[in-house]
Amino acid sequence: MPAYKRVLLKLSGEALMGDDAYGINRATIERMVEEVAEVSRSGVELAIVIGGGNIFRGVAPGAAGMDRATADYMGMLATVMNALALADALRQVGVVARVMSAIDIQQVVEPYIRPKALQYLEEGKVVIFAAGTGNPFFTTDTAAALRGSEIGAEIVLKATKVDGVYTADPKKDPKATRYATITFDEAIGKNLQVMDATAFALCRDQALPIKVFSITKPGALKRAIAGGDEGTLVHV
User: How many independent structural domains does the chain possess?
Assistant: First the structure.
């Protein structure tokens, strides 16, 4: 039984790569979409913010020394490509998804309009927010915090390759332990990098909890939404 009615899932672009160096791994996106579809069919109103690192990584060497704003706009366009791929993969398993972009590309995707997004969620459609916030210098983590606040999400689910927030880097410190729950203030005090500072502050100010979990673990998304001991819950 889901513990949340409306959630915002933050997917990194890297999560779509699988073991590839960049791009979208077909098997990875198909497995991810099956889990998203299962959650959507359970009655959870699901919105997704997706990153673009998997595509931008492929052009990053050529972007060295580039103007930061220009590079950020390229990154935003990469998220649109990922959002289209995700929406199409969802369509293939029978789930209706709508892509809404913070950058106006009306021939390709709808513009982000909050009342329309809320209508889609209420109709049971998965809403995929692309192009970050539409502004350079802001990450897709911040876009997740912003859109989550705007749509009245009960929680932001940050899907990563690590199954939660640890006392130290688990790859470097074998004694590192995972926090089951931690408060925003504790995370700041311990200097734990849960999200970038802007996104983290916005979630804290809006009393919007964050759950960090591993998208690579089968069934983890469903368990996180069920409120089980999956990942790390950051709360007020």
Answer: 1
Q: Tens digit of pLDDT per residue, the chain (236 long)?
A: 889 999 999 999 988 998 898 899 999 999 999 999 999 999 999 999 999 999 987 666 667 788 989 989 999 999 999 999 999 999 999 999 999 999 999 999 999 999 999 999 999 999 999 999 999 999 999 999 999 999 999 999 999 988 999 998 888 998 999 999 999 999 999 999 899 999 999 999 999 999 999 998 999 999 999 998 899 999 99
State the Cα–Cα distance between residues 219 and 38, nearest whole angstrom. Answer: 10
Domain, as residue range, for 148: 6-235
d(CA 69, CA 147): 21
CATH code of 216's domain: 3.40.1160.10
Within a domain: 176: yes
Say which residue the tokens 């959650």 belong to.
39
